[in-house]
Amino acid sequence: MDMVKLGKTDLVVSKNGFGCLPIQRVSKAETVYLLQKAFYNGINFFDTARAYTDSEEKVGEAFRHIRPKLILASKTKAKNAAEFNEQLETSLRLLQTDYIDLYQFHNLPNFIQPEDGTGLYEAALKAKEAGKIRYIGITNHRLYIARQAIESRLYDTLQFPFSYLSSEVDEALVRDCRAHDMGFIAMKALSGGLLNNSAACYAYMAQFENAVPIWGIQRESELDEFLSYVDNPPKLDGELLEIIEKDRRELQGAFCRGCGYCKPCPAGIQIDICARMKLFLLRAPVGPRVTPEAQAMMEKVKDCLHCGHCTSQCPYELDTPALLEQNYEFYQEFLKNYKA
User: Fold this and answer.
1) Mean pLDDT of residues grouped by 10 in the chain (340 residues)?
2) Taking a C-beta distance cutoff of 8 angstroms, is the pair 157, 186 a contact?
3) Torsion over CA of 113, 115, 117 and 120, rounded to 10 degrees?
4) In the beta sheet, which residues pair with residue 45?
5) Cβ of 230: how many Cβ atoms within 10 Å?
6) Phi and psi of 107, rounded to 5°?
7) Eight-class DSSP state of 136
8) According to the model, what pLDDT value does residue 23 have?
9) Which residues contact 280 (CB under 8 A, 6 or more apart)?
10) Are 323 and 254 in contact (CB under 8 A)?
11) What pLDDT shows up at residue 196?
């Protein structure tokens, strides 16, 4: 397994990390097996968050006996110092550890810095001095906050969405992190599940020596797929380049990444699914998308209140109500032809 040093830290992590968001959907026993299999096959970097329901608890159960041998990252969405301390203590308890290697501010709407009135950065420094966290990182989906994080030199790592759908501006972030000796962690390397050729994603990411993708894994077959690339890395040529170019033509632009920051919807709409329904129908097995339950879910789109909640929360500044309407119309046309 290739290893990468995260910027100026002493954290040397496996080139491919394990993103622990999807394990919320897996039983504890299955998750423990999956996490331990990943570790014993060379993955030493596991990224979770306080906001990922029971993810931290499962990670803690898997690694409580071998904690010093791996690197744990977690995140907080705290809005002030008191919340920060409370969430950190909860994370430490659930992870069954007395320190977290990398503690990150989790996609907050404003750039966190000293003397900004929140007390958050100061709280992080105190936690670091106390030995509860080793390094301070930041995650975000907003380009301008990512740029501030790099230029401020306040943070050890940046976690940002990055895949072969990313723009040249996004690629510049990766290079700038390297120039500033700042670790770069790539989230959404599969673009929320819309990129379905893992070999192409893996080969693209391998070009960036300082980028550490955290693959979101919830099935053993997915883990095996990524582990197979360690000894037989896919090459970015011919067939894979054609796949990438095809996906770029179809997907680059205004589409929902499924990050879920728009939720919960006041009208009960499953925005992260409904706003991507067209792409699911075009790129994935159709069966699960046309069940009575799926149709009922799409019918909820008609209940949209146009309240502005989703648009105000979208880090990609999408016109979400318009996107929902477009997907609903496409879905209805698709059902007519599908039933026929």
Assistant:
1) 95 96 94 98 97 97 97 98 98 98 95 97 98 97 94 98 91 96 96 88 96 95 95 93 91 77 91 90 85 95 94 86 94 85
2) no
3) 50
4) 71
5) 16
6) 50, 45
7) E
8) 95
9) 273, 289
10) yes
11) 86
Question: Which residue carries 């090459």 as its tokens?
Answer: 235
Q: Two tokens at 53?
A: 């329901």
Q: Which tokens belong to 176?
A: 């700038």
Amino acid at the residue 83:
E
Instruction: Please tell me the distance from the alpha carbon of residue 23 to that of residue 20, in angstroms, as a whole number.
Output: 6
Give all domains of the chain, ordered by start, each with its CATH number. 3-236 (3.20.20.100), 271-339 (no CATH)
The Cα–Cα gap between 109 and 107 comes to 6
CA atoms within 13 A on the CB side of 125: 10
Give the Å distances, CA to CA, from 197 to 163, 209, 282, 284.
12, 21, 15, 12
Burial 280-305 (b: 16+ CB within 10 A, else e): bbeeeeeeebbeeebeebbebbeebe
Alpha carbon 242 to its chain centroid, in Å, reads: 25
Q: Which amino acid is at 200?
A: A
The two structure tokens encoding residue 211: 């980028």
255: its two tokens:
């589409």
Q: Can you count the helices (H) and strands (E) in the chain?
A: 14, 10
pTM: 0.86
How would you class 232 by CB atoms within 10 Å of its CB: exposed for 0-12, middle for 13-18, buried for 19 or more? exposed
Q: Would you call the peptide bond into 264 cis, given omega within 30 degrees of 0 as the criterion?
A: yes
Give which of 203, 168, 173, 209 is closest to 189, Cα–Cα: 203
